[in-house]
User: Fold this.
Amino acid sequence: MKIAIVDDEVYWREKAEECIKEEMKNEIEITVYDNPISYLESKDEYDISLIDIEMDELDGFETIKKAREKNKDTIFMILTTHTEMSRRGYLVNAFRYLDKVNLKEELKEAFYSAKKLLEKDKKITLNIVGEAQQEVALKNIYYFEAQRHGVLIYTTLGVKRCNDSMSEMEQKLDNKWFYRCHNSFIVNLDEIESLKGTVIYMKNGNDIDISRRKVSEFKKVFLKRQYECANG
Assistant:
């Protein structure tokens, strides 16, 4: 995960970097900027950018507006000691508004939620029949259905067939937010509209089966995912 910190005060730059390293351990690469211009002129792209709200050359809101023009997928978090200005954060669609005074506590929640969001952009490589290997974003997959000679993948771009087995699919998904609810189905928990008995109704209008022996476990997994997303 690549992270940028933009703040013209050395104390807060160091404080933010210290808190992030403590929270994220070895999962990160941090770049620190002492002014917004250097940040905007950088050709690097970041997963998360923490932007101070009050800077001499350009304030945090204007910095985020300009940064979005080239880095649309970056998660922006605003740093400030003036929490009364938090409403303005919605104008630039800031992911979180972090109070510097309580930075350690607020960063913990913010980064937990950001990691969940970033996971959705991850891609897996599939051996699509007739299209060779292809990368597909996890967020664009509704579910997988086992076939005699491979797997059908129901996506936002239509149905694709690949040569991988269901077991190979499970390994690629690595227990993200997909669940094998039946020998024939692996479902994206985020794309479920509703559940009734042993039938899952999907947001794309399709419905799939749950094995009776898995209904209880599935409900627990599904509710846990809903809770995580509600707090993300």
